[in-house]
## 1
Amino acid sequence: MLIKIAHNYYYMVAILLFIIGMHTMLTHSNLIKKVIAMNIMDTAVFLLFVAVGYTYGGAAPIVTAPANEVLYVNPLPGSLMLTGIVVAVSITAYALSLIVKIYRFYGTVDYDEICLIRSQE
Amino acid sequence: MGLTNHFPALILAILLGISFLSPILFRWVRKASAPALLLSLFLALVMAVYLLIQTTQVGEFSYYMGGWPPPWGIELKINLIRAYMLIVVLAVSLWIMVYALKDLEHELKTDVLGWYYTLYALVVASMAGMALTNDLFNLFVLMEICAISACAIISIKEDRACLEASFKYLILSAMGTGCFLLGVAMVYMVTGHMNYDLVNEYLPVAVEQYPNNMFAASALFIVAFGTKAALFPLHVWLPDAHASAPSPSSAMLSGLVIKIYAFGLFIVFYQIFPRSLLDSIPLNEIILWLSSMGIMFGSIFAMVQVDLKKMLAYSSIGQIGYVFLGIGLDDTIAMTGGFYHLLVHAIMKSMLFMCAGVIIYTTGIRQIKQLGGIGQVLPITMIAFTIGSASMIGIPGTGGLISKWYLALGALEIGRPIFVVIILASSLLNAIYYMPIIVNAFMQQEEFAYEVKAVPRQMLIPLIIGMIAIVFLGVFSRPVIVLLENGLQLFF
């Protein structure tokens, strides 16, 4: 069992990162930290995907000659994750712009303080 | 033939195209921008109807994006259920847009209107795509487009409540899509495919080889779609987001956006997952109990609200529970009820939010207790509100009854009468919080105490159409029910 886990350590790392990201995102009150955590979470999934596509001893999947025996790395997860990164970037940009607007209204990026300000009104 | 073959892709192309064009049109030919959006929505609707007719004749068919067949390319698939979803999405969004044209001038700054059209077209395009796509990664991308643009049609109002609500919505949506992508990764690891049909083909073997992997994936899918569709314990973002948004956005979000994710869960459960997986893990049981809790608690929370739009938002949490109940009951009749409720609720909740929008537009009132006597000054609006509420409660002659009837029949057929009790109890709860508003609006003796602007005709016509649609769905339900029954047979 342990040897299996040690052999597939990259999956474990990805899941660990995912949990760290999700936990931080849901429990921290600082909005910027939430956005950072969201990125960690997304990156974890990207790492998992890219790790899935890797083949031991595989070459880069550029087919130049009819080479039959060569082992290639699966290019699909990599190209899919490029799309995923673009999506993550746009969500980050949008979230940060929202934070800027929220900061203009409240003068803070801490959710607890925002709640406090609202309750005092 | 020629062009008609490409209708599935053209629907998406037209909607995405208009989303790019409308800011430009708004800048240079301001008068043309709104008609252009309406026209493109209408064209898309016509194409969707054509697809429905085609699929009734030839059965299920596929469209390969760029001519690449799977496993290489993205496949769009059309069958009865998908065409039904497509028509619901396009028809309801066209109807809401007619109303929105007038209401938005009041709620938004004039110079952001062009951008609003962009975001609106993007939401509709991504939902249409979700109804059509047959590829998991494509679904992920469309979910993200839908999440961002759905948040943006809330935050475009730029007041404090909207910004906070949309941030909360964005964070929880991002969690949902993160979980979804991880689930897709789990599925991809064991099958090596993204196409629904190919995944479905390889999963039965994979489930036996890697059961833990699939347990994790199914849990992640439930969390992902549950968060997005506001399934009970994951609903926390919904009330703020739907209540603070501009009224057309609320109608859109409550009426359609949460439904399309329920449809996504249906596709994952019944098209992607093999039967053996659904039988070996009690996934449907989880959905059933969560949705029942949603039905009860959504109504109970709605009772204590003082803000009209917040009450409607909490009511949505209860009503989406019916759709999930239909999915969870795993029976053709119940699922027909669930899908029928999807259509009926899309119409009635959008109409109720429009009524709330008209009330806010003409009087500026949001509090429920200030609405006494409003029936005398806004008669048509309040009659529309009454019919919408009646349908929520499930009074005979409205669409709400039919869906509840089929859900209850389905629950009885698989021998779970407890869910009939839940449906009945929730109808009672619905009556408890909708009835006082209507009674107050019409029966109160005193004059309405606030100033009232005239209601523009453009806002009243959609309400009248909505009333007719709800009554029509309540009286002539047979065609839609037959369509759904035929469509659902493909999945059993």
## 2
Amino acid sequence: MTLPRWIDPASPDWPVRLLHLESPPQGFWQLGTIGALWPCVAIVGSRRATFAGVEIARSIASELASAGIQVVSGMALGIDAAAHSGALDAGGSTVAVLGCGVDVCYPTRHAELRSRIITDGCLITEEPPGTPPFKHNFPKRNRIIAALAHAVVVVEATERSGALSTARWAADLGREVLAVPGSIRSRQSSGTNLLIRDGVRPFLGIGDLIDAVPELRSAIPEAALDTLPASHGGGLERFSPPLREILARMGTQPVHPDQVGLALGLSPALVASRLSALELAGAVMSLPGGLVARTV
Amino acid sequence: MPVTVEADIANGLPGFTIVGLTDRAIQEARERVKPAIRNAGFKFPPRRVTVNLAPAELPKEGTGFDLAIATAILRAEDPSLRLEGLAFLGELALDASLRPVTGVLPMARCLAAAGICRLVVPVENASEAALAEGIEVLGAATLQSCVEYLRGEGSLIPGVRDATPAGAGPEPDMAAVRGQGQAKRALEIAAAGGHNILMTGPPGAGKTMLARTFPSLLPDLASDAALEVAAIYSLRGTLRERPPTTLRPPFRAPHHSISRAGLVGGGTGLAQPGEISLAHQGVLFLDELCEFSRQHLEALRQPLEEHSVTVARARAAVTYPADFILIGASNPCPCGHLGDAQECRCEPRQLSAYNNKISGPIKDRIDLVVSVPRQEYRDIFEGADEEPSAVVRGRVEAARNRRGESAGHGNAGLTGRETLAAARATPPARRLLALSGERLHLSARGFFRVLRVARTIADLAGEDRVGEDALAEALHYRIEMAG
């Protein structure tokens, strides 16, 4: 069994970049097998994320992980959890920076995720063991996320989200911040859209991230670079014409299958069977509530 | 089980005792029988009268024994009454006229099975009792006419079976619902295979309306099945709301505030059939499924698996048939707006608690899930003409006939092994199934559920083997959500 370790600036495992902070932690507790690597990317966002947001966080994380980049986040519900599990599913490593003691599982439903992170990455916290998840711990933990990562991607955030505080810390530290743009009507994207208005680089695909952070490009092996999709969208040629027809009818917003059927004049049976085929191909996901959304 | 009523008249102080595990209604029969005999012009024996209802260890209840008790007492005094091969049912009024009782049809069927050849019932019950085969039914208006008949001096009105099938009132037609193509398709599959189905959607989307049109997709009941249904309604005394000769499958939609006994059967004394038995051979619609208590949903598990329900009481357990198609409707989340144009305001924790409520007890028995979106005004007022129920019913009947005798409860009742054998999945369909197990995290149960639904879809398409298209469509209605 792995035991928590105390890591202070004297330790060989101390990430020097934490000293970029004006008030760096005295040290931190670390539980897990792989410590924080360099470079790594933070993916943060709302707890109450939309399903599209969760899917985006998951896919960014898994693309980064398969290119060998570690993903940092805060193990909260929503975007954070999707980022961790996306990285782990792709066989990568991930770091969770907590606002509670290293032995406290918060939120409790992430017990399984927590143990996966311990196996393939680590938990980090400056709170002593046993500390409950106090509200005032989270802004402090955000500064560590910002300092650890070389770049921060904000996937979805409302105007008051803690993810924006992480983005501010990152900007102050000179880290690259990218925000995933969303509809101007979507409350869950209001914070990220504000960031973009204020000059943050929009994230449209993993290529934007790599272009923005030269260190990432040099850290990723050439072979892995080639397999990374340059930007989202396109690449529908692998689907047969009937399936492409359906995809073309589905915009970025989730739709109900009946709408697709009506628009294309297809029977409900045909729409259902084609949507399943697309889902199996990973091009469509069905959301609770019966809607379907494009994921390519 | 037939009950034998014996009467003994002995010397002693005048008195009247009824024994044989009787309920209060039977004890009160003493106060009805005595005046009725007097008012019919006979003499109540001024001696010690003991009536025994045999078998004595079986609990008995109800007022239907009045006529038999009176006849037994009169026979004890007057040996010229011929009672051989006769059974009696009916409640006595004080003026010696006969009043109808409930449950006549199942009792008549039971007596016929026990070899009784003639049954005397109140005239109001005669046509109902006559539905039972193998027993001659005679309707009597009063105790006098009954006694005259027994003396061989008069005749009773023979009960006549009303052979013309009655309608069960108008069933709403599916053409009345605009749009909702996917929900209608899923209901068609459910009707063809006998699958239980869950509809989710925001309030006001039309889930209830769709469910009410569902019976119009089902074929007529076979006459013995219809008789079984009528027998259950007779027990509840509710044949007035459902004519006994109708061949249309019943539709029951109990409100979520119903008691557990009302839902699955029970009550004081001998257990009464509940809503799930009244839905036998038809449809049980549970609107706002998540509002039903967990105990209620839990209680549905046995009937959903065994197609019957056993209600145990302290002294007797009763088994009623309960073979129905379950249609559940629920909001997608506590606020009702998940996936709707209006934004959902539920916390993730609330969402999972809400989903667990249904998924726990009866998820295993639901084969199809379909979402019913709120309709846009455009869709309601424009759009093509909708298919009438009769056309869909034609396809459902054809699909059911394809399965023929092989499926007792439709494809929904197939076991895992039977499903595999019946599906005869084509190689591409097999590949798709393997892929879906991997990509969509299909459980073993989920796997067979999808295959059963795919079998029904292939039946509707008139295909012998389950192909890729049928399977892919079935996957779309699966209950497990990815992620």
